[in-house]
Amino acid sequence: MTAERASVDLENWTCPVPLRDSPTVLLGHGAGGRLSSDLVEHLFVPAFGGDAKALGDAAVVAVGATRIAMTTDSFVVRPRWFPGGNIGALAVNGTVNDLAMVGAQPLYLTAGFILEEGLEVEELGRLSTALGEAARQAGVRVVAGDTKVVDHGHGDGLYVNTTGVGVVPDGVDIGPVNARPGDAVVLSGPIGQHGVAVLSVREGLEFGTEILSDCQPLHGLVGDLLAAGVDVHTLRDPTRGGVAATLNEIAASSGVGVEIEERLLPVPDDVRAACGFLGLDPLVVANEGKLVAFVPAEQADLAVATLRANPRGVGAVRIGSVTQEHPGVVVARTGIGGSRVVDLPLGEQLPRIC
Amino acid sequence: MTAERASVDLENWTCPVPLRDSPTVLLGHGAGGRLSSDLVEHLFVPAFGGDAKALGDAAVVAVGATRIAMTTDSFVVRPRWFPGGNIGALAVNGTVNDLAMVGAQPLYLTAGFILEEGLEVEELGRLSTALGEAARQAGVRVVAGDTKVVDHGHGDGLYVNTTGVGVVPDGVDIGPVNARPGDAVVLSGPIGQHGVAVLSVREGLEFGTEILSDCQPLHGLVGDLLAAGVDVHTLRDPTRGGVAATLNEIAASSGVGVEIEERLLPVPDDVRAACGFLGLDPLVVANEGKLVAFVPAEQADLAVATLRANPRGVGAVRIGSVTQEHPGVVVARTGIGGSRVVDLPLGEQLPRIC
Questions:
Q1: Among candidate residues B167, B201, B221, the one where a domain is terminated
Q2: Which chain A residues are within 8 Å of B163, Cβ to Cβ?
Q3: Which of residues 64-123 of A touch B (CB under 8 A)?
Q4: Could you tell me if B323 and B243 lie in one domain?
Q5: Any idea what the CATH number is for the domain that residue B130 is in?
Q6: Is beta strand B158-167 parallel, antiparallel or unpaired with respect to A317-323?
Q7: Three-class DSSP category at A321
Q8: How far apart are CA A214 and CA A189, in angstroms?
Q9: Are B218 and B157 found together in one domain?
Q10: B28 touches chain A (CB under 8 A)
Q11: CB contact under 8 A, B55 and A163
């Protein structure tokens, strides 16, 4: 959603102001936009202590002399199987990627299932196998699990939480507060594929497309950047809320402005067509195999070249830069010399996308 | 459920044999009994690799030079508020206790919420506050979180996953395979309170009782045992499936027999009365603040005295011992000189008890 372009009301849209003051939980509270931020800032942080940043990202904490990263994610994507992926593979890659975004080497995962009575055991087997296979591909071990079953009508087949632990190498300090004026903003490849792939098979929204989810692990790309000597300041994988939410969160956390060139954004033609059909801005559509990196401007070319040398980052491009002007605000320069504010999505454009 | 005493069909009970071969997920698959074991052994372990034991308990793994314990648990208890506790406090203590059962000092938790559209934000606030307060009381930090929202009719207000990390002190080796013939079996206090407390307020089952859940953290008790020099072999908190499931799992994992004296079991009068009313064996009812410890016989008195010196273990008693006879089987000696086999519960006596 942007200031210039109204999004189409797909589901449950109501006026923004009452939405933010709702006495009950709305789908938008889980969408990674302003409503989610409100919940974290005004409800969870006061309840749990700590600070909002620590609750939003993988946390880096000490055990003995080692720094570990911890992150948790529940997956409720609907449908469970979609072009290019499934909830099992997504649960591995989503959590592995959150660890990678603080520069950690992912090591261990836990898997907590909430099954709805009546789920086919055969499908549970296939999804567990997909989860196990994704873990092997990502080089992580599933070390602990839990299964709860809820009565029919109180779930949706299968929800799964994965929580991950990784080790943060000495000297690595990557975080959302570290973006600096002058940094280049690099994106590892085309955007919008995961969200459009899921929507293309969603009940009531089916439309023909060949787009596959980009669901993949990203810690290899991060390892390559670090090995190449890139002084990575900030990383984020633009999942719920898309690139728009990611850039807004980093701008706010680091107290900087971000400017991107709209013409440089890698939006595949079929994604653009589907977004036009659905009334979505590709900037707010979820990705599950892309990262945004903030690096010193003089290392931008090195970062892009390093990412492109890895099959998971062949589409890497520089899309913008960090400015000390308009702190907390993301601006997109449009093709014809104008500009628009890229706002943090309010709530729910794409419910249950991950 | 025992060999001598049939349990009353409370909800959804069907014939045991078809239950075990069901093509769909049943409530019993989440109950901590045979159906749960089947799922772990025959589905999750082949899918994820590793071994069944590692998936059932807190896993102990290495990060750098440090051994950490990891465990995950999702909480779906119904209702969310019950005498003596709530789902927030339960989510903290359940996970803290799983860490404690391998001798770990709990340090960090993550909290992953799956909210149903329509939940009162005010109740979410109260439950989060309860979770945060329980974490402070247990001395652990909630370091990362996640919130997903599912549409109305696909959840039940609030489910929460907590995953915990703790440090295992050097030299500590506590696990389900370590019980040995000659060990004493010590229980830290009266049983059956959590399950009965939850059932006492469950929709359709309300009955008058003053019984409170025993929900509490147990790592202090474990620390006391270790500090007293008790060579603890095996620990387990008897949650789903109760003491019956716990003793059966340990007997199977360690390849030993377990004998308990029925008259030594601390069952409060009101719990016994409620279990009689409901047709339940107190041995299969869930606890959330008790532990079973297997220790060398010559240290049994020291273990009991150490537990009793802590307010969380004042009701500690020795309930039995380990034998090399009937490996894998748990036997209860009855008051009149007879004995009965204490079987692993098959499936679901008490759905959604945690």
A1: B167
A2: 70, 72, 110, 112, 161, 163
A3: 64-66, 68, 70-76, 107-108, 110-122
A4: yes
A5: 3.30.1330.10
A6: unpaired
A7: strand
A8: 10
A9: no
A10: yes
A11: no
Position B305 in a domain: yes
Please check whether residue A112 lies inside any domain of the structure. Answer: yes
Domain span at residue B129 reads 57-167
Q: Is the dihedral of CA A343, A45, A174, A85 positive or negative?
A: negative
Contact list, A75 vs chain B (CB under 8 Å) = 148
Let me know whether B245 and B158 are in one domain: no
Best of B10, B24, B25, B37 to mutate (most A CBs within 10 Å, chain A): B25
Distance from CA of A327 to the nearest CA of B (A): 26
B300 with B218, same domain: the answer is yes
Which of the listed residues A111, A136, A167 is the one where a domain comes to its end?
Answer: A167
Candidate from A27, A65, A121 with C-beta closest to B22: A121
A31 touches chain B (CB under 8 A): yes
Distance from CA of B128 to the nearest CA of A (A): 6
Shared domain for A326 and A214, answered yes or no, is: yes
CB contact under 8 A, A68 and B63: yes
Q: Flag if B167 and A64 touch (Cβ within 8 Å).
A: yes
Give the count of alpha carbons within 13 A of B181, CB side only: 10
Residues B221-233, buried b or exposed e (16+ Cβ, 10 A)?
A: bbebbbeeebebb
Q: Give the mutation candidate from B21, B80, B148 for the A interface (greatest A CB count, under 10 A).
A: B148
Q: Mutation target for A interface from B37, B80, B147: give the one with most A CBs within 10 A.
A: B147
- CB within 8 A of B91, min separation 6: which ones? B73, B75, B111, B131, B134, B160, B161, B162
Q: Is A122 exposed, middle or buried (0-12, 13-18, 19+ CB in 10 A)?
A: exposed
Pairing status of strand B257-261 against strand B330-333: parallel
Measure the CA–CA gap between B319 and A351, rounded to whole angstroms: 52
DSSP three-state, residue B160: strand
Shared domain check, B153 and B287: no
Q: Which of B146, B160, B165, B237 to mutate to test the interface with A (most CBs of A within 10 A)?
A: B146
- Residue A25 forms contact with B (CB below 8 Å): yes
Examine residue A7 and state whether it is found in any structural domain, yes or no.
Answer: no
| Pairwise CA distance, residues A332 & A343, whole Å | 10
Closest CA to A316 of A329, A305, A332: A305
One digit per residue, the tens of pLDDT, for chain A of length 354 reads 333 333 333 344 334 444 467 899 999 898 888 888 888 888 999 999 876 555 556 999 999 999 999 999 999 999 999 999 999 999 999 999 999 999 999 999 999 999 999 999 999 999 999 999 999 999 999 999 999 999 999 999 999 999 999 999 999 999 999 999 999 999 999 999 999 999 999 867 777 778 999 999 999 999 999 999 999 999 999 999 999 999 999 999 999 999 999 999 999 999 999 999 888 999 999 999 999 999 999 999 999 999 999 999 999 999 999 999 999 999 999 978 899 999 987 766 678 999
Residue B151 lies in a domain: yes
Q: What CATH number did the domain enclosing A266 receive?
A: 3.90.650.10
Question: Cβ of B352 and A108 within 8 Å?
Answer: no
In terms of domains, do B190 and B324 share one?
Answer: yes
Distance (Å, rounded) from C-alpha A352 to C-alpha A205?
Answer: 14
* Minimum-distance CB partner of A72 among B26, B47, B145: B145
Q: What six digits make up the tokens of B141? A: 């930090």
Distances in Å between the Cα of B29 and the Cα atoms of A129, B26, B77, B221 are 18, 6, 15, 31
**Number of domain units in chain A:** 2
Q: Residues 229 to 258 of B: which have CB under 8 A from any A CB?
A: none
| Same domain (yes/no): B154, B270 | no
CA distance A329 to B337: 79
